[in-house]
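Hi all, long-time lurker, first post. I run a small reading group and we've been trying to get comfortable going from sequence to structure in the token notation. Rather than ask abstract questions, I figured I'd post a concrete chain and ask someone more experienced to write out its structure so we can walk through it together at our next meeting. Sequence below, copied exactly:
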Amino acid sequence: MKNSDTFRVIGYVSSDHEMNDMIIAGKARVGIKIPVDYSDKLLHQMSAQVLVLIDGSDSSVAGQAINVTTAIGLDESLRRALVTNTNFAVDMRPKLLFNPDSRSPNFFLPGLTAILLLNVTTFLTAFSIVREKERGTLEQLSSRPVRPMGLLLGKLLPISASAFLSSA
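-- Answer (accepted) --
Happy to help. Here is the structure in token form:
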């Protein structure tokens, strides 16, 4: 897994609790637990299981992690099967955390709502300033002791507040 282009080693842990804490804190997206007897089982031509804990909050990343870990386990099993005629020497066991059904709307829709609100407020602010220019009142505003950032915030805050209230 370390040699694949998909995974990057963040760190090594000595307990399940540390691995879970790193995934929960968002420091790691995938945790791989290799059992103590992994090498012994493979040397004795037995099947060895590897637990792969995957942060399922991003369903596309989780899907890619499942596919790659399964493919790596299958590739290793096939290489060993050609030499020793054993079945599925490496058994990858992926487990999704935080989103076991891999539903992307749980995390996609709130982000899409925020992007739409950002776009709406940007367009309405720009429209408001263009309207001031067309009416000829932009020159009157520039003669006042208001700085350009104050003018922009004065236009942006009411529009933002109304957009947030209308989305709720």
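A couple of things your group might point at:
Residues 145 and 151 are 10 Å apart (CA to CA).
The first strand starts at residue 30 and ends at 33.
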